[in-house]
């Protein structure tokens, strides 16, 4: 399906994860200010309710903001929230996969998946696929996933033989930055996922994008101990604001310019070339198959 009509954000329904802080919050406020209707997916209900009030207060009380509660590292929770979204929302025009984190300790989820991988990659993969039919029904529609320049740390690509990242969290590997490399692998997965999704969506009217927000001063990596907090404090001196980091996300949601693009990677509101590993089409196909197996989709 193709459309020649001009894309406009006004009145579009946007589902966004990770919108209670950082670039997600900055983007949510900006999208609402530009006339979008929001569905915020959040884990902490009390905090999310504060954010909804904040977004409404930043504009006018007539701003439409729905709240959906889910843990994006839990597949059962994602399935439940997807069912709630489908029941409530006859249209989903834009899905923003923004939730993500770096975990310094090795954690395995209830689904038997390493936590960074579960939250940063499988969460977006599963939620996107569960909502994909509704997005196609709403076409033209868009899927935007927050990637990172950090994907370039994973120069050797994704280690498909160590999906639980047990090697990376061994004491010596951990000391040498194993958890950070793991984060890089998940951000690489975001780009490969976007590219493969773009191929599968050709002709449907749904388009897929991912982007690098840059080094942003947020609360990212603040839950991983004193050293991580000190490191992030130093990096904040060279960081951009969440509002600046959200600019490309908002642009991808709003711009008519990208309507004919699909599966590409962006930074600072323009197409960029990611790493060689991020352009490996065989790895993208393999990742998709493994992700289907891990989510039983």
Question: What is the strand and helix layout of this fold?
Answer:
Layout: E1 13-17, H1 22-33, E2 37-42, H2 45-58, E3 65-69, H3 75-88, E4 94-97, H4 115-137, E5 141-146, H5 171-175, H6 178-201, E6 206-212, H7 226-235, H8 242-245, H9 247-254, E7 264-267, E8 270-271, H10 281-295
Parallel strand pairs: 1-2, 1-4, 2-3, 4-5, 5-6, 6-7
Antiparallel strand pairs: 7-8
InterPro entries: NAD(P)-bd_dom_sf, SDR_fam
Keywords: Oxidoreductase
Protein name: SDR family oxidoreductase
Fold and architecture overview:
This protein is 43% helix and 13% strand. With 297 residues, it is of the alpha/beta class. It has a single domain (13-295), classed as Rossmann fold (3-Layer(aba) Sandwich). An 8-stranded mixed beta sheet has the order 3-2-1-4-5-6-7-8, with helices on both faces. Helix 3 (75-88) packs parallel to helix 4, helix 4 (115-137) runs parallel beside helix 6 and helix 6 packs across helix 10. It starts with 12 loop residues before the first strand and ends with a helix. Mean pLDDT is 92; it is low at 227-232.
């Amino acid at each position: 399906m193709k459309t020649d009509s001009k894309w406009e954000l006004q009145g579009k329904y946007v589902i966004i994860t990770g919108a209670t802080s950082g670039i997600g919050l900055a983007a949510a406020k900006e999208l609402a200010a530009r006339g979008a209707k929001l569905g915020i997916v959040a884990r902490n209900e009390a905090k999310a309710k504060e954010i909804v009030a904040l977004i409404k207060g930043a504009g006018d009380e007539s701003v439409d903001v729905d709240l959906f509660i889910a843990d994006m590292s839990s597949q059962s929770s994602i399935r439940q929230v997807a069912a709630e979204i489908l029941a409530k929302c006859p249209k989903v025009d834009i899905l923003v996969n923004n939730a993500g984190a770096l975990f310094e300790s090795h954690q395995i989820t209830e689904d038997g998946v390493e936590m960074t991988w579960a939250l940063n990659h499988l969460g977006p993969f599963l939620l996107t696929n569960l909502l994909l039919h509704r997005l196609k029904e709403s076409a033209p529609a868009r899927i935007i996933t927050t990637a990172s320049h950090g994907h370039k740390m994973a120069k050797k690509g994704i280690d498909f033989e160590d999906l639980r990242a047990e090697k990376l969290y061994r004491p010596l590997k951990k000391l040498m930055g194993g958890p950070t490399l793991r984060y890089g692998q998940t951000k690489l997965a975001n780009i490969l996922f976007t590219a493969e999704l773009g191929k599968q969506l050709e002709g449907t009217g749904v388009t897929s994008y991912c982007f690098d927000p840059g080094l942003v001063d947020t609360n990212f990596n603040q839950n991983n101990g004193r050293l991580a907090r000190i490191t992030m404090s130093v990096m904040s001196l060279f960081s951009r604001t969440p509002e600046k980091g959200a600019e490309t996300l908002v642009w991808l949601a709003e711009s008519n310019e990208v309507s004919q693009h699909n599966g590409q990677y962006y930074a600072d509101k323009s197409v960029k070339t990611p790493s060689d590993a991020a352009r490996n089409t065989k790895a993208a196909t393999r990742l998709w198959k493994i992700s289907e197996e891990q989510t039983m989709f």
